[in-house]
């Protein structure tokens, strides 16, 4: 019972907008705190689960998937119990929509710690549940995440196929922001596949889509700052293939990182990794090395295998630089593997 009271206390904190502590996340990682489930589910339980899911998403963006994955999976067990309880049709649909979000987060967190197969299974379940209750935005977002996993793993053909499915699903939403987000994913896949012209074309289409929407009203939250961050990542990939893109990448990343919200520590670490890499490729070693040391300090507070892997971009750039300062940074990066 004490666990249950503590769990309800966490839900109260979430409802009031308070941040979760490490102890809160540890408690949420214990399945027992989420029992017993009620015999009947109402709007209150769905609202609590939705609020908790939002907070866990925020924590993932700040601390990385490794910091929240156990808590997400534990709460997913509770949420699945709620699906077995009685509910009105409306509450049942809303509950399935929230569970789809939680499944997508479980997929994202699993991917972030390197569990690709598990991530794909969770995301596939998120797509299925979203489709079941007629939620194309949720379905398209989960499909987009699947496409990005395939892109990162070098499966360009599979990435393209899944992202095309996501675009078809997104067309039903009339969400320009969602289309822009998926087009940037297409751009990243094209850059990884070494088709720079196609990558730049996708970015232009994404920017056009975003310019025709009211980003404040977008269900995805994908705004011009996040677009610039995504574009910077695409130009970074292209810069590692040809230094002619370095200037564009640096300008884009410099502007976007200055505008990123403070709660997006993980994205900022990714972006600064890219910015340091591009400065090194562009010939400004001093700036690249300075930013690189900043990133190493940031990365120590973020539990993300993806970030550790992403730092290899910077490590590769330091290897190509003969200066003692670059060798020192390379040594620090080597210690993070």
TrEMBL record:
Q: Which domain of life is it from?
A: Bacteria
What the entry lists under PROSITE patterns is as follows:
TAT
Entries under InterPro entries matching the protein: TAT_signal, TPR-like_helical_dom_sf
For this entry, the protein name equals Transcriptional regulator
The protein's organism comes out as Actinokineospora auranticolor
